[in-house]
Task: structure prediction
Amino acid sequence: MPEALSSRERMRRACLGERVDRPPVWLMRQAGRYLPEYREIRQRVGFLELCRDPDLAAEVSLQPHRRFGVDAVVIFSDILLPLAGLGLALDFRPGPIVENPIAGPADLARLEGSVAEAIAPTCEAIRRAKRALGPDVPVLGFAGAPWTLAAYASETRLSRDLDRLTSLAWREPAFVERLLERMATIAAETLRAQIEAGADVLQIFDTWAGVLAPSRFRRFAGHALAQTIAALPRERPPLVVYARGAGHLLEDLARLGADVVSIDWRTDLGDAAERVGVRVSLQGNLDPAALGAPEDEIRAEVSRMLDLGRKARGHVANLGHGVLQHTPIDGVRAFVEAVQGTARA
Amino acid sequence: MPEALSSRERMRRACLGERVDRPPVWLMRQAGRYLPEYREIRQRVGFLELCRDPDLAAEVSLQPHRRFGVDAVVIFSDILLPLAGLGLALDFRPGPIVENPIAGPADLARLEGSVAEAIAPTCEAIRRAKRALGPDVPVLGFAGAPWTLAAYASETRLSRDLDRLTSLAWREPAFVERLLERMATIAAETLRAQIEAGADVLQIFDTWAGVLAPSRFRRFAGHALAQTIAALPRERPPLVVYARGAGHLLEDLARLGADVVSIDWRTDLGDAAERVGVRVSLQGNLDPAALGAPEDEIRAEVSRMLDLGRKARGHVANLGHGVLQHTPIDGVRAFVEAVQGTARA
Result:
């Protein structure tokens, strides 16, 4: 067993497939409504307002680290923040609503303005969180993947299975390709700004890639993801790609140039490790709903997950999707403690 | 090449893996809003009212057969119709809303009343459609799978990824098991009544099974599906099971006792055929959004689908999900003609 590592070093090594003392653990959407200290702030401040206030965004990002000692602090922001700065009228009620979606080629010209400016509060929140945490705890920045950004940008309210964008991709593929190209530059600019602000790890969320068949993924979402990743500096922090409901795209996701593929709860972690081999590390993948189970069951599920994770090149323990709103705090604690080996079991 | 078969015999043989002249073809949700003759009727009659009017339901079921000559007529109804007859206050706006969901064990007693009575209009519509069609065209009846029925029954409006029911399954598994058991009897009664009315093929829709990891599927949705199928008569029409987003459950779906597994557009049909072997036939799986593409592209996609389908024990050509509302009629026609080999290409 190697000596105990700092969370930052543990996270870096797990992402790159180097030796670690134990898997690092954090939770997607770990700063959120299931925490009373978060809800307390949100009583006073709207969601977008909170994203745009560097002090409060840093504070909210740090809350779950204070409570659970997770191995990474994910900065509080939203993947749509850059789009809101580029002239899209974005609101949350509570799901995202875009009043003026990009419906055709002529609308693309409307996407002007500075991405760097739009996400300046997030970058400032990264700096403040890093100052508060010191060098041992990594701060994770993130961006939406081009396909997922295009999904929100092209529709007022998302249809189930993303019917509108997938239909558009059959009917007007050239337009969808141009839209994705624009979204790829936005995603890359978002990540570059966060690298400059000091982000230690990056994650790209392709929440909606899973609706595509593999050949459609390669032509649209995957192509634009690869463009995004290629536009990052050669020397960059470890990069995670998350896609929801994308077990059928795993081999494709592993070939994009990312260091880690984050899989959802539906894909067996052991099978995934066999399928991707040593090409990437894996992140995930406990069912977020499982955190409502009795604690001994959570510990058993974590134990199974860690066993399967050992088959991967490297494993970052996480959920298969974001923490659900009604998750009990003790369930989150049991999850983190079980990974960190401090469970009272 | 065997001699030309009737649609009914072609469908039966494809489902059971016997030799056919060509794959039969029909479309899920083939009677619906993309058809002007359907919209014309719906201007006068609400959705539930239409389901409950045997004359109109039969008429609407026959419309796509008249227009496209599909190989099966699926009866117009809704998987929630039996629940609406058992005291659940169901409305469509346009998605289903249940005002008085089954939230806990005490609510189960509320589910009383006769399933046979609730779906009597559907059974009568089956009889009328069969009289109109004669013996050569099969009529397909259907029911919702227990897990999918439980999803709608237990929540006013479905949450994304079915968070509420999946959480409940971790928190109160005994209640969810009882709920599923009740839903399994409802699904089986629905199918038995349709068999008696003369349905030539049956399909069970497990629209929401795909949110479950394989082990959870086996314990909950799959177990209840197997119960449903076991409760059908030994001598029964061919049975199809459809699950959306369930590529990760394919082997499990093939082991339930159904004759056909209907796969969605995300799963490669050739891979699926290898995975299930000769255990079941496959149905599907063109991307419904592809029907908006130029017709030569639709023909190319159909040709690819039919090639892959030849690897299966039997293949029923279909979409990977229901026809989308804004689908062009010419796209549907191109799809059907391409399968039936009458395309002008």
